[in-house]
Structure formats: structure tokens, C-alpha cells
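Lecture notes, unit on protein representations.

Consider one protein chain, 140 amino acids long.
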Amino acid sequence: MDLRVNGKNVSVESDPATPLLWVLRDELKLTGTKFGCGMALCGACTVLMDGQPIRACVTPVEAVGAAKITTIEGLGGTHPVQTAWIRHDVAQCGYCQSGQIMSAVALLAANPKPSDADIDGAMDGNICRCGTYQRVRAAI
């Protein structure tokens, strides 16, 4: 299968039913996207598909088709959301942060001045065991 990941065309050999998460991590070696629960409940595996957040742990690679996939690596480390994350000292353990950041990027692309309710809605389902939710909101 041919995919478009982080602005590059790539070919993958995985079974079409393989979750996108494992194609990204195991075949493409993009390990910034994390495995959390495997049931699309925690948000650690969030990536963007055509700019919309999806849970890569439950999205079969065959469902991607010609869509553009963006992972945390695709932000390049200098995205304004990543800069805000650093400025607000959001991360503690950091495990959930790539998923949190990808959800925030999608929110801000659609709504550059979100209300607290908008933030809560967009970030719902992104779980942080360290409880940095107030810092996430401040960074957004």
C-alpha cells in the first residue's frame, strides 16, 4: 500500500487490517505516536488524517487510502503548539503528550481562538495520568 505520511509518499507491506499505529511504529519507525489502551479511549495514539484527529490504534491502515497522515514527527519540533507546551511546562511523564498535541493542533487549525468549552470538547478522550489538564488548557 502507498501512504502519504508527514508529507512523504511511503510504501508499506503490512496487512491491510493492521492498525495504523503499528504501521507507523513498527514499519515506518515513527515511534512518537504511543500505544495506550488499544481501544481508542485514551488518546495516546492520536494522529491527524487530513487534519482531523483519529485514533491510530483502531484505524486499519487500509482505511487511510489517499489521506494525508501527520504524526508528532511531522510537526518538526518547532510547531507553535509544541512551543507553547514547553513554555507552559505541560509534560510530566510525557507519554500522552504526542496525542494531546495532535488533538490541540487540529483544534487550533479549525478554531484559532477556542473557548474553554471548545478546548474541553476537543481534548475529551485525551487522558493524562499526571493530571496536567490545566497546563494543557493554558498552552492551547
